[in-house]
Amino acid sequence: MSVSINRGFFESPHPATYFFLAANIVIFGLCANQAGTQQIPGALLFRNGAMYAQAIERHEYWRLVASGFLHANLVHVASNMLCLGLWGGHLEKRVGTAYFVLIYLAALVAGSVVSNLTHTSPYLGVGASGAISGILGALLCLRMLAKLDLPLNFFVINIGLNVVIAFTASRIDWAAHAGGFVAGFAACAGLDLIEKANAYLLRCKFPEFAKLNLLLLAFGFLFLVWLTPPDWSLLVAWLAFCLFAIKLADIALACTKGLAAVVVALASANALLLYGLTLKLAPQGCGGGFAPAFPRMRDLLVAICTNPNAASTVMALGALALTLLLYSLELQRGLQDVGFVSASMMGERRRRYGL
């Protein structure tokens, strides 16, 4: 199915694009403030999560993501954020916020892994270039699938510039660019296949807020499993539970007032996740290894360490209330449903095949 989306060269950013823009800029600002200069020292980058040669060997997998939010200097962050602003809006508008986040993170991790594998000497790797190249790869995939109406010169210009810069500029990690680009292309193609399969497996087209929240819950509970430490049986159980939750949400959305039930279920799951994370992480922060610089953060850590059960309960209730507040319009829509909402979501699933 061919879909005409946008013939223009530019597209305004959307929520997830704004979030990643803000996160990268704020983190760079904090690093620059700590360093006292816009040229961030290698030691500071290393402490905050830069990739290095032995990171994967030492199981420091968190660096695969953290390194993508660090930048070496003002030019580095400005050029990456310019590309993110120019390309991110096109992709997020087309695939939605949840799939955009998934593609972005997949390309970020893949770029970090490929970069690590291709370095034979000590190095420090930082920057969002792998993730941003993944956005371009996903856009090209949609163009080849005839599901995006961007002009061909959009890809010729942007890919050409990236290739030239990667091979001519100094200290450009071409492996991260290439790994992220391929991963973004592959992730987009994979999501298209999943959406085609969902035409037979699911009855409803999920609202964007539900897809995004389910994605965040999946990552959150995977992190809890990872802290256990995990074994294969736990990971299989996690995957099975994720698939069960998706199908259960699909059944609920097909029912009258099911949208309201999904909102309440997501709010409860968010509360449960935050409760479990607080209980798991509090002992590590209370052991003296973490000493936040800001007085209010220290006061909060002291309060959590004094009574972790009460703190976890308060944070869980806060997550419950905040989720219900954020989804209040969807909750109201679900409560007022007499069958039209569920019918519209089932109709949307039948109308759409693939991304």
What does this structure look like?
The protein is mostly helical and 355 residues long. The chain has two domains: 201 residues, Rhomboid-like (Rhomboid-like fold); 152 residues, no CATH class. Helix content is 74%, strand content 1%. Strands 1-2 form a two-stranded antiparallel ribbon. It starts with 14 loop residues before the first helix and ends with a helix.
How much helicity do the residues have?
A: over 70%
- What is the alpha-carbon Rg in Å? 22 Å
Spatial gap, N to C terminus = 9 Å
Total strands: 2
Oligomerization category of the chains in this entry: single chain
Strand residue percentage: under 5%
CATH architecture annotation of the largest domain: Up-down Bundle
Question: Major β-sheet, in short?
Answer: 2 strands, antiparallel
Number of helices: 15
- Please tell me what the overall shape is: globular
The H-and-E topology, N to C, reads as HHEHHHEHHHHHHHHHH
pLDDT averaged over residues:
84
The CATH topology of the largest domain, please? Answer: Rhomboid-like fold
Uncertain segments of ≥5 residues (pLDDT<50)? Answer: 1-7, 289-294
CATH class of the largest domain: Mainly Alpha
How many structural domains can be distinguished in the coordinates? Answer: 2
Q: Strands of the biggest beta sheet: in what spatial order? A: 1-2
**CATH superfamily name of the largest domain?**
Rhomboid-like
Helix/strand/pairing category: mainly alpha
What are the SSEs and their pairings?
Blueprint (H helix, E strand, L loop, with lengths): L14 H21 L6 H7 L2 E2 L10 H4 L7 H22 L1 H22 L5 E2 L3 H16 L7 H17 L5 H28 L6 H19 L5 H22 L4 H32 L5 H12 L1 H19 L1 H8 L4 H12 L4
Antiparallel strand pairs: 1-2
Helix pairs in contact: 1-4, 4-5, 4-6, 5-6, 5-8, 5-9, 6-8, 9-10, 9-11, 10-11, 11-12, 11-13, 11-14, 12-13
